[in-house]
Design brief:
The chain has 80 residues and is mainly β. The chain has a domain of 51 residues. 6% of the residues lie in helices and 29% in strands. It is built from one helix and six strands, in the order αββββββ. The strands form two sheets. The chain has a three-stranded antiparallel sheet, with no helix packed on it. A hairpin with a 4-residue loop joins strand 5 and strand 6. The mean pLDDT is 81.
């Protein structure tokens, strides 16, 4: 990793935030019943993901319960 980041020369970064719905089966910790377009009524997670578009890497990921709104905790999202 040190070699990769040592050779990286970037003047600016483009950070993309995205969320999706992941259906869960059984009793998964943190899963909750919420909006799920493919399997209505099922428990799910609603992760919030940050991507650095310039170098095509994932910067951070929060696994949120399925009943979270897509904009929930976006301002508190810590990228450090």
């Amino acid at each position: 990793m040190n070699r990769f980041f040592g050779n990286l020369h970037i003047d600016h970064l483009t950070l993309d935030l995205d969320s999706t719905v992941m259906t869960r089966y059984g009793q998964q910790e943190g899963a909750a019943r919420g909006y799920n377009p493919r399997k209505p009524g099922r428990n799910s997670h609603h992760p919030l993901m940050a991507f650095v578009a310039d170098i095509r890497m994932i910067a951070n990921l929060w696994l949120r319960p399925g009943n979270s709104h897509s904009a929930n905790n976006v301002l508190a999202y810590n990228l450090t």
